[in-house]
Specification:
four-stranded antiparallel β-sheet, 2 helices, binds calcium ion
Length: 196
């Protein structure tokens, strides 16, 4: 009878030990899951904070560039900020601009995050096979930029160059960068008009 009780007591101890081991394992698992969840939340919060910071930098860069354009002599904006050098004067910043604090996307050909786009056309080769320079074009198709449109105020949209005769200048200023959550783009499209 005593031997039987001892065997039962031994089984109970093993059972208690087994239960404790399961509880410890469950506690470790729960702790691990809680830790991983917390780590994921922290990483997400960090990404969100960094993303917000990047967007703030991009927006400030776009606004600053728009201010620069607005403060430029209206008639000179096209030649100074298009992506061609054929019409450049002594000061010609061009279409690309740097944005301090942001990393360019891998495929960016010039390594500068900022880009100004004006409605230009690259005409066909001339009779001698030479490439004439691009020009300001009313027929440029970009509905978000409000194009095609009459830019010189003669009431028609045609294919003639308007580099020297525009009354309005549609422009897109954008920033593309490689950020915390991949490639990002922020852009503003607007029409510039002469200051009164
Ligand atoms: Ca130019
Ligand atoms: Ca660029
Ligand atoms: Ca016109």
């Amino acid at each position: 009878m005593r031997a039987h009780s001892l065997i039962r007591a031994g089984r109970r101890r093993r059972s208690e030990t087994g239960t404790s081991a399961v509880e410890v394992l469950m506690a470790i698992s729960t702790f691990a899951i809680a830790f991983l969840t917390l780590a994921a939340m922290t990483a997400t919060a960090r990404s969100q904070t960094q993303m917000n910071s990047e967007r703030r930098i991009a927006l400030q860069a776009v606004q600053s560039q728009l201010e620069t354009l607005k403060n430029t002599t209206f008639e000179a904006i096209f030649a100074m900020f298009d992506d061609s050098t054929h019409n450049d004067g002594p000061v010609a910043p061009g279409a690309n601009f740097d944005v301090v604090g942001l990393t360019p996307i891998d495929s960016d050909p010039d390594g500068q995050c900022g880009l100004i786009t004006l409605p230009t056309r690259l005409p066909p080769l001339d009779g001698e096979g030479n490439q004439p320079p691009p020009y300001l074009w009313e027929g440029y198709v970009d509905t978000r930029l409000g194009m095609p449109a009459d830019l010189d105020g003669d009431g028609v949209v045609d294919d003639d160059p308007k580099d020297d005769g525009y009354l309005h200048l549609p422009v897109r200023v954008e920033v593309r960068w490689n950020g915390a959550v991949g490639d990002q783009r922020l852009h503003v499209a607007t029409w510039l008009t002469p200051r009164r």
